[in-house]
Amino acid sequence: MTRIVLLGAGGKMGVRLSANLMKSSYSVDHVEVTEEGRRRLADETGLDCVEPDSAYPLADVVLMAVPDNLIGAISEGFIDQLKPGACLMVLDAAAPHAGEMPHREDIAVFATHPCHPPLFRNDVGEHAQGDYFGGVAAEQNIVCGLLRGTEDHYTLCEDIARTIFAPVRRSHRCTIEQMAILEPALSETVGATLALALRDATDEAVRRGVPKDAAMDFIVGHLGIEMAIAFDQFDGVFSDGAYKAIEKAKGVIFQDGWLDRVFDPDAVLASVKEISGSA
Questions:
Q1: Which residues contact 52 (CB under 8 A, 6 or more apart)?
Q2: Model-level pTM greater than 0.90?
Q3: Are both 78 and 137 inside the same structural domain?
Q4: What would the pLDDT profile of 178-203 be if each residue is shown by its tens digit?
Q5: Shortest CA distance to 90 belongs to which of 76, 104, 73, 75?
């Protein structure tokens, strides 16, 4: 039986993962260094934690549910306790891409990250519709990458990833660099920034006198069909007037060459180094 050490088991993400791992056949040792985290884990799952020094030597996989900027330092502290062939599994590509993972040739490194439930989905039931993060009721997709290790490591860790983020529809295999392009560059640098810009614009409409409920209903409804058109989910096109507004707005909202600057490999690397604390 594969033995997993879940590090950071009492954090918000750790508790999420613990709940899904409880439904699996994996043997899991839960490690949490804070009293608050241990209490949270016990209260929400009924699980107890073990001492890390007794767990690490037996681990086949150490699943690190800890902040990106702590992964390097924490893993350096226990890497020598792992048996040959074990695997470090992290929930983001930042630390691996930034060169923050400790190096042992006989230790694999695997990264995974959820795509989160898509905007366009046909989940049945209100519970699934309300699962925006994923890992509870709504189906989502995941991305996975192997920095170091064998195909057996990949197969095992991909199955663990499917378990902790269940229900999973599709798993996409990417390189670690490609995962860093997806996050932070695509999803955060661009996606989250534009999402907040949309909220800023909506608030500005309200400031200029539009009733708040009307503004919220109008933009959220329009975004639904606009995103469906942009991402080929709907057999339709923007109106002639919309195309004219789009072309005029591009020069006002965006700087020339912004895509090249955001996705430049050096820019992506600099971003993950900031995230992982190595900048």
A1: 5, 7, 31, 33, 78
A2: yes
A3: yes
A4: 999 999 999 999 999 999 999 999 99
A5: 75
* Sheet of strand 87-90, all strands in order from the earlier edge strand to the far edge: 27-31, 3-7, 61-64, 87-90, 108-114, 140-148, 168-173
Give the contacts of 78 (CB within 8 A, at least 6 positions apart): 52, 56, 62
Task: Report the residue count for the chain.
Answer: 279
| Domain extent at residue 225 | 181-276
Query: Are 129 and 56 within one domain?
Result: yes
- Smallest CA-to-CA distance from 85 within 63, 109, 66 is with 109
**How many Å separate Cα 123 from the centre of its chain?**
21
Q: How far apart are CA 61 and CA 110, in angstroms?
A: 10
- CA 198, CA 217: separation in Å to the nearest integer? 13
Q: Do 168 and 188 belong together in one domain?
A: no
